[in-house]
C-alpha cells in the first residue's frame, strides 16, 4: 500500500472531495488482509473484510486522523484492529452462548469473563457452580488439556494458543473440541430426553 497516496486521499476526503473514498478503500484492502493475518483474526473471513470491515475501518481512520492529527497509516492500523477485536468478541459471545445453552443448569451465564452485563449474586453462584462442575469433569485430564480449555474460555485464539504451548493449531483445536464435548456430555447426558 502506498501510504503517502493514502494520506493524500484521506486529506482530500476531509476537505470534502468524497470521490476518492472508494479508491482509498480499494487501496487499503491488501494492507487490511495483511493485518488480519498478522494479528491472527482468522475467524474473520476475507469476504467480511472486503464487504464490510474495510469501509468501516477507512471511515473510522479518517475521523481518527482528523481528531488526533496522526498519519492515516497509523489510524487505519488502529481502527481495523479495534473493529476486528469487536467482531471477535461478538463471535466468541455467540459461540459461548451456544455451548452454555446446551447444559442443564437453569439460566446459565456466559462462561468465564464473556459478556457485558454484571450478574446478580445468584447468577454468579450458578456461574461458579458451572465452572466448578467443568473443573471436576476435567480433573482427570492432562495438564495441557486443562490449559487449552482455560485459555480458550479467556478469549485466546487457536494461533495464540499454538504459540503459547509450542504445538500446532490443529492440536489445540482437537483438544479443545474434545474437552468441550466431554463437558457437554457430563452436564447433560441425555439431551434428547426433555
Summed up, what is this model?
72% of the residues lie in helices and 0% in strands. It is mainly α.
| Helix-strand category | mainly alpha
Continuous helix count: 8
What percentage of amino acids are in beta strands? under 5%
Query: What distance separates the N and C termini?
Result: 57 Å
How many strand elements? 0
Principal-axis shape equals: elongated
Task: Describe the protein's architecture and organization.
- Helix 1 packs across helix 2, helix 2 crosses helix 4 and helix 7 (about 160-165) crosses helix 8.
- The longest helix is centred in the middle third of the chain and has 30 residues, at about 70-100.
- The protein has about 190 residues and is mainly α.
- The protein is built from eight helices and no strands.
- The protein has two domains: about 5-90; about 105-185, Arc Repressor Mutant, subunit A, CATH 1.10.10.
List keywords for this structure.
194 residues, mainly alpha, Arc Repressor Mutant, subunit A, 2 domains, 72% helix, elongated
Note the topology:
Elements: H1 3-14, H2 21-39, H3 46-68, H4 72-101, H5 121-137, H6 143-153, H7 158-165, H8 169-187
Helix pairs in contact: 1-2, 1-3, 2-3, 2-4, 3-4, 6-8, 7-8
